[in-house]
Amino acid sequence: MRQLVLLALVGLGAQLVDGSLGMAYGVTSTTLLLAIGTSPAAASATVHLAEIGTTLVSGFAHWRFGNVDWKVVAKIGVPGAVGAFAGATFLSSLSTETAAPVMSLILLALGIYILVRFTTFGLPKHNLGKPLRKRFLGPLGLVAGFVDSTGGGGWGPVGTPAILASGRLEPRKTIGSIDTSEFLVAVAASLGFLFGLGSQGVDFAWVLALLIGGVIAAPIAAWLVRHIPPRVLGSAVGGLIILTNTRTLLRSDWVDASDSVKWPVYVAIYLVWAASLAYSIRAYRADRREEREAVAGAEADKADESRSAAS
């Protein structure tokens, strides 16, 4: 019972992050399932089955808050579903010994990308309002869907930064559209895993626990997306994913590192993580200060114009 409660809390926390940032539900949940000994294919299958419910509720909540661009959902969601099904059947064919370090490497790469992307660049806003082409969204969805299934997460880490980097869709609609289209990816991936694995290794009580936590968090996250600083959250989540998957790799048969190697690596990760968080917080505060100064300057100019007109 205690384990189910913890899984529900994991689902709640992961969905809060995912719904606010447009990524990391699958990566965070799968990372933690792997850490407690679940096989890679079963972990990814468990998370994707839970995501069918969480993405449905999250998509509805984002739609209600006006965070969804349905053209983007259609253009990226369908190829994403194709890639997710292919990735699920591929992962199901691998042995646990092979798949565990492979998945950890994928998750580690995604964690590094999240940390660097959000710490260094924040959220770009150039080209806002220009249309997103199908020739861009189609291949992006295919790759993101495949990575999502094989890595237990990746739809958001691949899709969200790519669309944000284009600067053509405002952040809240990018996050809402990615979260909504993930429903198609979750359904396709789940079908792929059920086709490849059956129900082998999938604990449906765990699925339900993750689902309950995610469903509770989904509407809260859709509201928070307008208020929470994504830059800081991205740095925090990226560091957690890097630390957890580095730990898995160092303990795997591929590396089997000694304690004299493990602990210096852990300390280095903690230091980089702390520095990244501090930088993100400082950069966020500086951006907010500049915005306030710009607003104050515009109001002062307006007041001067009013006085000049009156005189």
Automatic annotation (TrEMBL):
It is a multi-pass membrane protein. The chain crosses the membrane at residues 72-92, 98-116, 181-198, 204-225, 232-251, 263-281. It comes from Saccharothrix xinjiangensis. It is found in: Cell membrane; Membrane. Belongs to the 4-toluene sulfonate uptake permease (TSUP) (TC 2.A.102) family. Pfam families: TauE (PF01925). Keywords: Cell membrane, Membrane, Transmembrane, Transmembrane helix. InterPro entries: TM_pro_TauE-like, TSUP/Inactive_protease-like. This is Probable membrane transporter protein.
